[in-house]
Amino acid sequence: MFNLNSISSTVVSSRSIAQNHLLRFLHGMGPVFILVVHIGCLIIFWERLGLYAIIWAIVLYLVRMLGITAIYHRLITHNSYKAPKIVWWIGSIVAASSGQMGPSWWKAHHKDHHRNVDTLHDPHSPLTYRNKLHGFWHSQMGWLLSERFHPSTLPADIEADPVLRLIDRLHIVPPIVLAWLSWQIGGLEWLGAFCLSTTLLFHGVATVNSIAHLVGPQPFLTQDGSRNNPWVAIITLGEGWHNLHHSFEYSARQGFTLRGNKVVTLPDPTYCFIRFLEYLGLAHRLRIPSKQALLAKARH
Q: What's the predicted TM-score (pTM) here?
C-alpha cells in the first residue's frame, strides 16, 4: 500500500521521469483505466440504457468535458484567465474524473504538443506518418501506448501546489469513485452509462489531436497543421477551433475565424462557461486577442 505523503511529495528533479518508477506507475494507471472503460461499454449490449441512465451519461460527458476544456486546458495550461485556487482544485478533480490524467501530467503533455507540434517529437501528431490511417490511429488512441505518453518533465507551478500535485498522483481515484457512484445509483445499467460516457469523452477530446490536424480551414497563419473544425468544436464544446488556438494559445475564447477582412465569432460553449464563472466572481482577467491582432495573423 502506498504512503500518501510519499505519493503527494513525489518531486521531479533533474533526473528523467523515466527514472522515477513510482511516478511512471501512477501515471500509467491512466491508459489502463481507459482500456477498462472501453471494455465496460459492452455492458450496454445486454443491459439496455433507460432514459435516466442516458441523461446521466450526457451530464457526465458535458460536465467533465468542461473540466478538461475550461480548467485543464484554458486555465491551468494556458492561463487564459485568472481564478481562485478553489476553482483550480475542484475543476481538476472534475477533469481527473474523466480518466484523462491529473493536472501536472496534462499540462506537461499539452505543452510538449505545442513546443513540437506536428514534428516527430509531438506526442500525438497524425501528420508524422505517411499512412494517414496509421497517423489517425496514433493521434486518436495509439499514443497512449507510446513512450511519449510520459512527459520528460512536469510543470513547476503545478508541482508547487500540494493539492494539485496530490490530485495528479491520485488521478485514478476520482474516476473510480464516479464509477462506484454510478453503480450505487443505478446498478449495472448506470455503470454502463458511465463507461459509455467516459469512452465517448476520451475520443471526443482526442479528435482535437487527430481530426483538427487533418480536416478543416486554416484562416490563421501557423507553422503547423492545426485547423478549425466545426464538428470537433461541437463535441468538445469549442475546442475544435484549433487553428485559432495555435495562433493565440493564450486566448480564453477560441471561437474566432476570418471571412474576408472581417473577424467572425463562432460558438464556444467553454468560453460561455468561463464568462459564467466571471459573473460569479470566480474568474477575471480574461485574455482575448484584439481584432487587429486577429487580422494580422490572417493566412491570406
A: 0.91
